[in-house]
Every structure is written in C-alpha cells, then in structure tokens.
C-alpha cells in the first residue's frame, strides 16, 4: 500500500484575481506585468501581516491560505485598500483592480499546495466580487459575522461549476464609510434553495438604482439621487407594478456586481440605472432598463435638457419604462401616474439636499436635514414634497422619543396639509396611520393605511404599519402577509429589524414557535440590541421546550437590558390586554426556570 504523502486540515482560502489583465496586456504587456507584480507584492505583504501565506500563483491569479477566517477577511480589506490607493495614482485606463473570494473548509495539503472542493469554491466566489471587492461563502460568514465591523450583502444561493451543492454567496464590505467595498447591511441568510431567489408570483418587480453623478459640479450627486427617487415615486403609483423600496435599492450604489446579481439580491426582474452629468445650465441623463433574468438590455435612452426642464425628465423616463413593461398600460393612466404638483427648482434642490443628509442618519446630519426642510418650507409652504419630508422628520423623532405627543401633533398637521395639496399621495395617509398607531388607535390607523396602500401598493412602510395595526387589533393571521410583503418590497431596509420583530410577534400569537424563533433571530442579526425581538425569542424557545437555549438568551437579555420592566410590554397598545399578558407569560416561563 502506498504511503500517504498528504494531510487534511481546516483552512480559509482567499482566491484573488486581477481584473482587466488581458486588456492591459493588449495595451502594453511589459507595463501590465510590472503592474501585476507590484500589486502581487502588496497582496503577499498584507497576507503575511495577518498570518497568512500566498501559494499557487497562476497567470493573473493568486491564492492565499489562513488558519483564521477573521484574519483572512482583514487581510483582504487591507490589500484592497492599498491597491485602490495605488490605482488612484495612475491613469484610469491603466488601473488594475483585484477581486477576492473567501471560503472556509476542509482542504488537502500536499507539498505546500492546497486542493479540494473548498479551494475551488473560493476560486468561484471571486467571480461574484465587485472590482476592489470581496465575496465570501456562508461558511466563512458564520465565523466572522459577530466578530468584525464588516457589513454583508446576501446574493443568494448559486450552483457553482463542478461543485455538487449550492453555495450561498455574500459580498463583504467595511462597516460605515470605511472602505471602497462597503455594501448594504446583511442580517440573516434566508433558506431559499436554487440558483436564483425565486421571483414572487404576480406582476414583476422593478428596482431603480441610485443614478451615478458624473462631473465636477458639487450638486450633481444629490440631483442624480433626486431624479431616481422621483422615478421610484412615480412608478410606485401604478396599480400593477411592484416597486422595490428606495431604502433597499439605494444600497447598491456600486453597480459593478452586475444587474443579474443585484436583481437577484433585491428580488427584482427589472433594473433601472443611469448616469447624470451637469455642465453649467445643461444636464445629460443616460438611463437604461435591464431584464435581470437574462441580463438583456431592454431599453436605453439619452436625455439632454436645460436644468429648468429637470421635472419633465422624470415624466418622460417613468412613462417610457411603464410602457416598455406593458404595452397595454393605458396612456391616460401613465399620464395621471406622473402628474403631481411640483415645487420650484430651488425648493426641489433644498428637499433633495435635506434627504441626502437624512439618509446619512447621523445626529448632526438629521439636524442639517431639518434646516434644509425648514428653508424649503419658507420658500414654498404649500409644496406637498416639503410637507411630506417634514412630516416624516417629526415622525422619526417621535419614534425615537417613544411617541412624543408634540411631535405627533406636528406629523398630523403637516400630513393633513400635504393631503390638501395632493390627495393622490400615499405618504400623508401612511404617516397619519403610523401616528395613530403610536397613539394607541389601531382601528383608525388601519383606515389611513388602507388608503395609502390603495394609492401605492408598493409602499413598504405602509404595509408594515398595516401589519402592526392588525396585530394590535388582535388579528395576527391577517397581519403576517403584510409583514412578509414588506420584507419582499424592501429586503435591505434600514428598519427591517423592526418589521421582522413585528412578524415574530405575529408568529407567537398564532403559536408557530419555530417561525417566531427564526424570525426573531433574523431581526437580532440586524440589530442585536433590539430588546423586543430577543424578548419574543426567549418566550418562543420556552414554549418550544428548548429551555437551555432560552436560558442562554435570557442571560444575554438581562446583560443588555438590566433595567427592563414588563411595563415596556404593557405599553404596547394592544386592544385586548390579554395579548400583552400572553407575551409576558411566555417570557416569565424562562425567568421562573432560571
């Protein structure tokens, strides 16, 4: 019998590939080789600094081995940052970005080289990574998710070439604004099998990505965002088309992932993207519509306009997209969909600047946002857009203050005035409904929210609030579909943790304990400090007979929330106090067993 001359071990593998190497070789082969070697040395240095080693260089590809997945991810971020800085110092057409794929698993080691499916998976993963980005497998994610500040975007499961089982792929980026590959936050890995996330039954969904701003003009960025937001709003008013919420689609500012992967992540069959350039008083918008199921470009067009014609752009683009998707859409309905009262250009710019700051979600930025909205209000106190932004701002602050009555009064005043300006706007109805929920009036809230959903069936916020209204009224069965629709329409929403927490509560009331536990866990993956989701999870674990797990979760809960009182649960305005008692009793089972 031949002597075995290899070993097996657990390792984390990074597969690293140069992007555009062949193109650069065609331009200047000697310069391309020199550039590759310079960047290869950077990769080798970073890997060594974090306890790894490179092996198996082949052409424009490099492999690296690590014993620790966390150090592997840190090394990838480090060499990507250094290569980005190096590329910035050369002409754009001579830049050589890299992409990386990371996988953790069992490998065969022989004479310093590594073999096995898990090595091959790493090589396939790098094909999913954006330029200067990092793709990782779910196995690596499970090791790093709670131990780094990185953020993750789930692309779904894929069947990889010559790999027997599907592999779930995620894009990793630095947390906050810390790196070029920063991506949308990722909460939990859904258990959907298959090559692509299945498209929901019914009409196709469409996502409008943030338009890219080109040129040196300082206001191009917020103008590009503003036009894209306007198109989302116009499309959302159609009755037959599902539109992915801006809070999710705007996470994908870097379109180097490609429309097929972005569409899969968002659950959208169609993607609208574009670029905006401004020169003096002229603007040029290039926009396109892509079918994500096959990557085919369905429609594209260039629009050159004077800056004062910016509003007509939205009308034209939105109408063309609707007509492309369904030739039978009535022209009159198209026209009505995109006819809303418009404010002056100056007011429009103030609103868009305020939104830009609001989306940054820092305390200072939200204060600046209010300044812009107030200035817009002074310019045009009858603008429905301005009134809606102010209503949302005060609702946001009321939510942070646990239902501040003064702020809720401002929400109602502003929302009712907005309705006088535009009775076909769904937002004021939704804000009135949300304010009524916080006041403990779910029946009245449901009336406002039903009108909001009738006007805009794709309004994720309104659907989530309607679910909460049904829940407070004691009808958990009716609430569940609204929460599920919200998760579909806005899968990367900033407040997704709250919607999932409400869904977990609904599952508790119908006594579907496994679903309650899994949903609460998804909420906690998004926001580990969300007390309500962990409270619900503890009760559901006890009802499922999983006492040891409940005890561990209870210990975490008491550490995070030492001042917790059951009054926080009694504050939830269920119409029937027995609902509050039911949730508290579930939790008390764990306290009694401790």
TrEMBL record:
Q: Which residues form the Guanylate cyclase domain?
A: 12-126
- Output the SUPFAM superfamilies linked to this UniProt entry: Nucleotide cyclase (SSF55073), TolB, N-terminal domain (SSF52964), TPR-like (SSF48452)
**Protein name, entry field:** Adenylate/guanylate cyclase domain-containing protein
Instruction: Name the source organism.
Output: Mesorhizobium argentiipisi
């Amino acid at each position: 019998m031949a002597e075995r001359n290899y070993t097996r071990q657990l390792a984390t593998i990074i597969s690293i590939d140069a992007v555009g190497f062949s193109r650069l070789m065609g331009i200047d082969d000697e310069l391309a080789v020199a550039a590759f070697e310079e960047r290869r040395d950077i990769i080798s240095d970073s890997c060594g600094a974090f306890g790894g080693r490179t092996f198996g260089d082949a052409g424009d590809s490099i492999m690296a081995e690590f014993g620790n997945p966390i150090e592997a991810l840190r090394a990838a971020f480090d060499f990507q940052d250094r290569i980005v800085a190096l590329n910035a110092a050369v002409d754009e057409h001579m830049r050589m970005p890299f992409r990386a794929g990371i996988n953790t698993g069992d490998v065969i080691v022989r004479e310093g080289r590594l073999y096995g499916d898990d090595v091959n998976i790493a090589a396939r993963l790098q094909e999913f990574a954006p330029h200067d980005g990092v793709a990782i497998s779910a196995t690596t994610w499970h090791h790093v998710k709670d131990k780094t500040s990185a953020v993750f975007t789930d692309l779904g499961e894929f069947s990889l070439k010559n790999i027997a089982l599907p592999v779930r792929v995620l894009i990793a980026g630095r947390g906050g604004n810390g790196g070029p590959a920063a991506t949308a936050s990722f909460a939990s890995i859904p258990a959907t099998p298959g090559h692509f996330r299945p498209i929901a039954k019914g009409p196709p969904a469409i996502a409008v990505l943030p338009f890219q701003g080109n040129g040196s003009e300082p206001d191009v960025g917020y103008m590009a965002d503003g036009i894209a937001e306007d198109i989302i709003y116009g499309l959302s008013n159609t009755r037959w088309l599902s539109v992915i919420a801006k809070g999710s689609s705007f996470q994908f500012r870097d379109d180097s992932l490609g429309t097929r992967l972005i569409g899969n992540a968002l659950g959208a069959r169609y993607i609208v993207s574009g670029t905006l350039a401004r020169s003096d008083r002229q603007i040029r918008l290039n926009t396109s519509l892509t079918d994500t199921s096959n990557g085919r470009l369905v429609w594209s067009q260039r629009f050159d306009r004077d800056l004062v014609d910016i509003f007509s752009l939205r009308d034209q683009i939105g109408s063309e997209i609707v007509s492309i998707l369904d030739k039978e859409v009535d022209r009159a309905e198209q026209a009505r969909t995109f006819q809303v009262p418009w404010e002056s250009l100056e007011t429009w710019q103030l609103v868009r600047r305020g939104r830009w700051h609001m989306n940054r979600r820092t305390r200072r930025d939200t204060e600046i946002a209010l300044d812009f909205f107030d200035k817009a209000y002074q310019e045009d106190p009858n603008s429905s857009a301005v009134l809606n932004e102010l209503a949302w701002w005060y609702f946001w602050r009321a939510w942070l203050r646990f239902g501040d009555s003064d702020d809720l009064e401002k929400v109602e005043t502003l929302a009712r005035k907005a309705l006088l300006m535009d009775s076909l706007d769904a937002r004021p109805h939704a804000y009135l409904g949300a304010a009524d929920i916080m006041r403990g009036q779910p029946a009245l809230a449901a009336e406002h929210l039903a009108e909001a959903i009738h006007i805009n069936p794709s309004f994720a916020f309104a659907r989530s609030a309607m679910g909460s209204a049904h829940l407070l009224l004691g009808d958990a069965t009716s609430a569940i579909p609204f929460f599920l629709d919200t998760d579909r329409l806005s899968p990367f929403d900033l407040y997704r943790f709250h919607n999932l927490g409400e869904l977990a509560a609904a599952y508790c009331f119908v006594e579907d304990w496994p679903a309650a536990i899994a949903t609460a866990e998804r909420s906690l993956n998004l926001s580990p400090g969300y007390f309500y989701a962990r409270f619900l999870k503890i009760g559901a674990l006890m009802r499922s007979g999983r006492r040891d797990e409940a005890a561990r979760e209870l210990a975490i809960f008491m550490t995070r929330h030492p001042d917790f009182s059951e009054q926080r649960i009694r504050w939830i305005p269920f119409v029937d106090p027995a609902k509050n008692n039911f949730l508290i009793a579930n939790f008390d089972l764990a306290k009694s067993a401790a």
